[in-house]
Write a structure and sequence with these properties.
Radius of gyration: 24 Å
Shape: elongated
Strand order of the largest sheet: 1-2-6-5-4-3-7-8
Number of domains: 2
CATH architecture of the largest domain: 3-Layer(aba) Sandwich
Distance between the termini: 59 Å
Structural class: alpha/beta
Number of strands: 23
Largest sheet: 8 strands, mixed
Helix content: 10-25%
Length: 407
Amino acid sequence: MSDLLICVERKDFPADIPHPFYLTGFTPVVLCGPTELLKRRRITVLNSRQSPRFSKGDAWVRKTLEALRGFDARETVLISSLGTTSWDFLSWAGNKLGFPIVLVFPAGSAQNFIIARTKAIIDLGLNEEKTLAVRPLGLGAVRKKSQANGLRDIWILSLSQSLIQVSVRKKGNLEGYLNSRQLAGELIDRSFAIEYEAPQPIRKPQLPKKITLPEWYRPGDYLIHWTRSCVGPWPDESKAEHFERILTESDDQRGGLETLLKMLRERIIRASGRLVRGRYPVVPFTERSPEDLPDLIKWRAGLRRWTFEPYGIALKKSGLIQMGARPVIYGDLNDFDELSEAERPFFQMAASGKRDWRGEKEWRMQGDLELCAFQPDEIVVFVHSRGETQQIMGKDRYRLICLNVDD
């Protein structure tokens, strides 16, 4: 296991810092891994924030790979990071091409940094013996995520001897750093530079003004798990597996329908803790009627997606209760602190910003849900249009409801 090296002053840092003018003073840092990597030539490839919905044909992906292939991985180390699509992809691609990686984390604490490095190596598929993790220490001064990421970017630029520009947003932070008068122009390679393209907005799912249900469907008897497009890896997929799939498959479809088909094909609704306080893996449901779906679909700006799409699976409430499903506990952070460990997976903030989440009437079940626990006629599948029903029919005789009967 690697030990931690904490550098409080610049003289403690085990290598030269080519561009110290980016650092106002010296920010203490913690390192974990092979520090001898810093003795090699250091490069970085710069992309502004990119959409997690990308393909191998996207210009920034092609140019990033082209830039990396122009260097000898035996003599060069790649300065990169994690936490955004562009940094995650660069770290994975650099390792795939044989580069040792200096992985600069957003500013934070040295506590549990060894564990954080190990998790990143596993998720991005990196080589542990060729990965040096670096984290600027906030020491109380860094309170916002933007500040932590900004300090991360400054350290990447400070450590890199060559800066390769690919897709950099105009008037963004990266462009501002590159335009520094103290940075020699010959250190910036703009031969791979392309125009930055802002992520395209995702259209709201179109629903009929009124959803009509068949007489046999009784909303009070069911809980519904509505699906949505998968932004990034599937719940059972690492980032490394996700990037590998994007670069090898001809068409990477991960819309709401594809998410539904994957659940039916695998006969599992996989639990996720990504948006759950405490990261407890759960499967969410709503007890609201399918007729209320238009009211439930909201835009999540921070996640760059809609809360739900018109595809879902309804299961008998009685069976789910027997499997441990229960209504969530709406409250605030003080309420969460007072809950027992057994209750915390079911906690949900009552409100955030201007949004009140209690209207979703959410239920949760811990762990993956295997559909084979239900008889096929106890499962109801919702699709958006009649044309999509053909992709569901024949799958274990599930009951099927088309939400847009006029389509």
